[in-house]
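Hi V.,

You were right to ask for the full record rather than a summary. Here it is.
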Amino acid sequence: MDSFAPPPYPYDRLNELREVAAGLPGGVVDCSVGTPCDPPPEIVIQALHSSGTERSYPPSAGSPAFRRACADWLDRRFGVSLDPSNLAGCIGTKEIVASLAGFLHRRDRSRDTVLFPDVSYPTYAMSAELAGLRAVAVPALFADGTGVDLSQVSEGDAERALVLWVNSPSNPTGGLSDLDAAASWGRIHDVPVFSDECYAEFTWAGPRRSILESGPSGVVAVHSLSKRSNMAGLRVGFFAGDPELVHYLRDVRQHAGLMVPGPVQAAGAVAFSDDSHVEIQRGRYSERLAFFATVLTNAGFSAELPSGGFYLWVKAPERFDDAWEAAGYLARTGGLLVAPGDLYGERGKGHLRIATVQPTSRLELVAERLEAASRSC
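Predicted structure:
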């Protein structure tokens, strides 16, 4: 009988580098995982402790106020008009990414394949592993790892596909995908397309985009407050789009007991109703990206600004054997913890993902350390 042994958690591989970086005066500057370091808006904290919803079980689909706030946000930020009944809450987007393949396979056992970008967040592939299904990486459309080249999906894989995942802006590359093209491909091949859009508010090249702008048929957008509102610890997001898909997932998730806590739903409704704090956060990330790209360039790393998100996707200089050696150098000399690119797929090898989530003062500390190391050499 076959048994499943979970692989090591990707970021646990950074523990040794973390210890090295922590040994410098001032400690480690962690730009690896992408955990927000800035505070959520005060109105969210107030809503969290004053909702009065602690005693009763919360609705799995989300309270009417939460779903209304999500629908209004989609309309306000993307020009998408959607009935609140065609969206539902989730316990942060990672939870739905990881569980989706298993739930969809219960719906359609004739299909067994998860398609996902070949440079991407590792949980897309893990969702197939957890469900005992096939994970098939779709080659990137561009050399920098951006987008998905759907012309490279074989006819057999398309026929077996349960879902196609797209992610724009991309984690880790910061690139933007053609969401209309992905939606069209899915409709032609009768494959549901799920679009992870949790970085959409931090789109730098052009307007923010959602796959729902192409219409809801056959597509579902997934959004989160973890990055947008610095609420990663509260675990709240939503999925919205095709009524049949959303209603199926809403119902099966209710049976599984998957529900966002009531006070968190109240806080989420307040967060999605306010855009002013997001504009402040956009300013912070824009400044940090520009500052730290210059710091890395001065240290001999070629760092270009992303089209979206708050990650710098940096090719390791040729003086290093690989990205892990480059990450070790940054840990030893700068006290900087970053994520080597092979954590995001084989095509990510030779790159580093650097999350500019730390306060500018901490990034300045890294700059001082790297400059001192350069002078000593």
